[in-house]
């Protein structure tokens, strides 16, 4: 969708917007299902990048301890525990600029992925920049989806990161898609951006071909020692509006209510689900940030009558419609 179309949606009265988003959701997804994802940091801290929001950057005194790549057995134990608790997607993140084929650490990660992929869950990884050959290797090893967020708009991006470019991120996404992996691509609210930046980010995401398989909507959790430490928090209404706009713009993607859920009440999260969120990170930690506990999440889902989606271990990313005009992005837009 184009920016002007997204702006028209964003400026709708709140209840009109979430009602439209709910209608799109009901026409594209089985009702009352939520994807449960577990995220594990398999290599923490010491990253050379300067992402202003990230406590894992070696440039900031954030207090995050640098850790080596976890042993495969430890990762398998965590993956099995995630499956036992109901997660259907296991996401592994490593604090690297990127990966390169033929290196020891890449070979180790590939070996880990092969074992995790035998557990019957979707396998997602986020390893930084990715070349075409590395992408093919990850796909062959069993990766279902590659996560690489845009974070914000192209215009605002240089204010947040200077060690790589927006086009670097788009190239990684293209390499992952060309290799046959689905892409998980979203952004972060609260980076000092305007609503214009948020909508331009969604414009870029919605015009990807194919569209992302999932779109995480994160709320910044300001980390001590990072340049964005003192940032003002986003409101739940900011998040609900962006979830609703995203649901309409990318109707067949899983829209993930991601980082920042600890700031929202059960009632606020319920609004997010009504507006079209159908995926959450589930567990006690998101890389270096807190996440609602498993028992609390299960109680909320049960109260709302929501159930876990089955894993989609062999699904293609949604395709972009040939003529996705504003009017067509109501129910049924593919």
Count of distinct strands:
12
> How many helical stretches?
10
- For the record, the count of structural domains works out to 1
Sheet/helix structural class: alpha/beta
SSE order in H/E notation?
HHEHEHEHEHEEHEHEHEEEHE
Full CATH superfamily name: Aldolase class I
* Apparent shape: globular
CATH topology (fold) name:
TIM Barrel
Biggest sheet, in brief? 10 strands, parallel
CATH class membership = Alpha Beta
Rounded mean pLDDT is 86
Unreliable sequence segments = 285-291, 315-334
N- and C-termini, Cα separation: 12 Å
CATH architecture verdict: Alpha-Beta Barrel
Q: Give Rg in angstroms.
A: 18 Å
What percentage of residues falls in helices of 4 or more residues?
25-40%
Measured by DSSP, the beta-strand proportion falls in 5-15%
Written account of the structure:
The chain has 10 helices and 12 strands. It is of the alpha/beta class and 334 residues long. The protein has a single domain (3-329), classed as Aldolase class I (TIM Barrel, Alpha-Beta Barrel), CATH 3.20.20.70. The termini are close together. The model is unreliable at 285-291 and 315-334 (pLDDT under 50).
């Amino acid at each position: 969708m184009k920016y002007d179309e997204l702006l028209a949606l964003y400026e709708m009265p709140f209840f009109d917007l979430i009602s439209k988003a709910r209608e799109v959701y009901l026409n594209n997804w089985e009702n009352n299902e939520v994807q449960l994802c577990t995220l594990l940091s398999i290599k923490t801290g010491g990253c050379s990048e300067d992402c202003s929001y990230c406590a894992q950057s070696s440039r900031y005194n954030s207090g995050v301890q640098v850790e080596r790549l976890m042993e495969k057995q430890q990762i398998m134990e965590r993956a099995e525990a995630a499956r036992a608790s109901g997660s259907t997607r296991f996401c592994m993140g490593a604090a690297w600029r990127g990966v390169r084929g033929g290196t020891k650490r890449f070979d180790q990660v590939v070996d880990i992925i092969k074992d995790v992929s035998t557990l019957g869950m979707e396998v997602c990884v986020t390893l930084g920049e990715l070349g075409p050959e590395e992408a093919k290797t990850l796909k062959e090893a069993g990766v279902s989806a590659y996560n690489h967020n845009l974070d914000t708009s192209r215009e605002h991006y240089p204010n947040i990161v200077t060690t790589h470019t927006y086009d670097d991120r788009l190239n990684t996404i293209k390499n992952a898609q060309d290799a046959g992996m689905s892409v998980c691509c979203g952004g972060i609210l609260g980076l000092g951006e305007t609503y214009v930046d948020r909508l331009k980010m969604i414009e870029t995401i919605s015009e990807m071909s194919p569209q992302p398989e999932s779109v995480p909507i994160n709320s910044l959790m300001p980390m001590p020692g990072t340049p964005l430490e003192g940032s003002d928090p986003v409101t739940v209404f900011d998040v609900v509006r962006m979830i609703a706009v995203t649901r309409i713009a990318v109707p067949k993607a899983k829209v993930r209510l991601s980082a920042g859920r600890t700031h929202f009440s059960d009632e606020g999260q319920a609004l997010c689900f009504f507006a079209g969120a159908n995926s959450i990170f589930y567990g006690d930690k998101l890389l270096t940030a807190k996440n609602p506990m498993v028992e609390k999440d299960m109680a909320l889902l049960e109260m709302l009558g929501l159930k876990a989606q089955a894993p989609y271990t062999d699904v293609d990313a949604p395709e972009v419609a040939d003529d996705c005009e504003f009017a067509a992005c109501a129910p049924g837009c593919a």
